[in-house]
Amino acid sequence: MLNYFHFLDKNRQDTIINRWRVRAAQVLTILALIASLAGHKLIGANASSISRDAQAVPARSTTYYLADRVLKKTDFAVLANWGVNTAIVDFDVNGSASAWRAAFESARAANVNIVIWPSDWNNPRPNCGWEAPYPVSANGDIAKVKRLLDTASQYSNFIGIVNAHESFWTCDMSFDEMAGLKDKLKAYALSKGRAIKVWNYIDNLYDKSMLPDNQIERIMDVAVTWQHCAGNVEGTCNTSSKSSALNMILSDRKRIDASKAQVELVFLMQTFTTRGYSTKFTLDELQKYSCQFLDTSALDGFAFYTWDAGWWPDLHSWKELQPAIPYIYNNCVNSPSASAPRVTSIVRAGPNPTSAASVKFTVTFSKPVKDVDAADFQLTTGSGLANAAVSGVSGSGSVYTVTVKTGAGSGLLRLDVPPGATIADLQDNPLAGLPFTGGQPYTIVATAAFTSIPTQDGYALEASETSGAGGRMNNASATLRLGDDAARRQYRSVLSFVTGANLPDNAVVAKVTLRIKWQGVNGGGDPVRIFQGILADIKKGVFKTAALELADFQAAPDKTLGPFNLSPSGGWYALNLTAAKAFVNKLDAPSGLTQIRLRFKLDDNNNKIANFLSLFSGNADANSRPQLIVQYYVP
């Protein structure tokens, strides 16, 4: 929940504060925008330039901070001295234009920009977690906000406005309504001479499955997210935990980038929690975690704001936390390390797993860099992989492609950037945040191909239509059978592969494919379609004994996959059995075998006509025998 600020006359302030005390879900907040991570000047020092470019997506170099409960005009100057250059300010659409002008002028005098949090305290939107001034509408209604926009648009330090808050759980808005609000707010401000951005307090993006990728940019220019990680009340701030706020930030950034949405990401660091002052941050924690989050290069903005339990232990009142604002500005924002380039990601540029002799990685930096060569990278490999090496680097600006020879053997292959890398930005700032070891690894696999053993494979025919037991078998034929005979008895076939002798005991199986060759059809049609697909029963070891026997017809498998409704390609059916990879036998003893039984989903088609598919068996020509292809690596 958000905290709000009204810059109004004293009587109006008193009225609103009394109402706030009743509303336990709302607490005063102002967000403060800090100068560029790249060491740029404060936005407020050149507000007109920033406002003209307000629709352009900047490099990730803008950081937002909280300065809570600004009750005096002179507080803007205090914030500016701490490095603050923008505040998100609550304006009541029923307020006076003179009070609004006073707020903008005071902020402008301190070189502080303003993003408007609009509210309607007289007649707010019903069933909404904030005093939204937007009536329920299919395509967005900004009528109540126009008078405020008329005034705000006169000021060069007006750079944005909020269109939605918690729209998926406390203030329901459709995509069309949020998109309509965004478009109308921007168009109206532009008609008054201001180019602004629309901010949406969407909460985390990575877990919003109800939000399609193609709607992200449609409903906002700036996505605002937050987490109550102070005191580990909701999640944790500990960056080593998978449930940390940091990993949520990275997941949100990953989703925005993957969707190609031109949307900025702002994270709100909650100084207190819903459980009160006892679970607030200490000063050291606030500084430590804030700097760690800023170090990711994943954010376009960063902010503090207080908790939302309905009373006032805010950052402005708790003096012991105030030093965090200038500390983080001086040490984590406006510092040489903050302006230095960083590795933002290393991702695979090819299929995985792979047995290719070489692979490519895409390396992305936070800004354009130079002097990137093979010596700036190192490889981390599993014990089963040898002689892998970086063989080439290409690219320019902030994106490079690194080619790596995979060497011999199998295992995991990861590209890292070590502390000794000599990469720098165009101003000769060296690469920061090293070592970088968080890239996507490749799984380099070895391939083992096994053929079915002629003396152990074959087909079995059911004893009677409903017996479910073998009655006759053939292990000498060059073909296998799947289907039924004229007496509506089912054919099943068993394959046997010696996998244990050739797979390392510690192999990690990555992919399993069974290839069987079409020989012919008895009875016409396509039996695979007629009998509703092929089922594959997998057994680690043997169904009964190594040799084919009648009991193999009904013996229990370890896992069944299918039905596979597929057609042959080049005469071969290919069944992906990777889901049963745990049952590929890697041990020599007792049998070293992996056996697979094939059958159709339907046991017969009840037409009293023999109808079966013939496949080549292990007794066929060597080039036609069934093959079990196992891709694996040694960790």
Describe this structure as you would to a colleague:
There is one protein chain. This protein is an alpha+beta fold and 635 residues long. The chain folds into three domains: 10-339, Glycosidases (TIM Barrel); 343-444, Sandwich (Immunoglobulin-like); 448-633, no CATH class. Helix content is 18%, strand content 30%. It is built from twelve helices and 32 strands. Strands 21, 22, 23, 24, 25, 26, 27, 28, 29, 30, 31 and 32 form a twelve-stranded antiparallel sheet that branches. Strands 2-1-3-4-5-6-7-8-9 form a nine-stranded mixed sheet. The longest helix is centred in the N-terminal third of the chain and has 17 residues, at 175-191. The radius of gyration is 33 Å and the shape is elongated. The two termini are 46 Å apart. Mean pLDDT is 83; it is low at 1-62 and 308-313.
Summarize the structure.
The chain is α+β, with helices and mostly antiparallel strands.
Task: Note the main attributes of this structure.
635 residues, alpha+beta, TIM Barrel, Immunoglobulin-like, twelve-stranded antiparallel β-sheet
Secondary structure: elements and pairs:
Layout: H1 10-22, E1 31-34, H2 47-52, E2 63-66, H3 75-81, E3 84-92, H4 97-109, E4 113-119, H5 146-152, E5 158-165, H6 175-191, E6 197-201, H7 213-219, E7 222-227, H8 245-259, E8 264-270, H9 283-294, E9 301-305, H10 324-333, H11 336-339, E10 343-348, E11 358-365, E12 369-370, E13 378-381, E14 385-386, E15 389-396, E16 399-405, E17 408-409, E18 411-416, E19 424-425, E20 442-444, E21 446-451, E22 458-462, E23 470-474, E24 479-484, E25 490-498, E26 508-522, H12 527-530, E27 534-540, E28 559-564, E29 572-576, E30 593-600, E31 611-616, E32 627-633
Parallel strand pairs: 3-4, 4-5, 5-6, 6-7, 7-8, 8-9
Antiparallel strand pairs: 1-2, 1-3, 10-11, 11-16, 12-19, 13-18, 14-17, 15-16, 18-20, 21-32, 22-23, 22-25, 24-25, 24-31, 25-30, 26-29, 26-31, 26-32, 27-28, 27-30
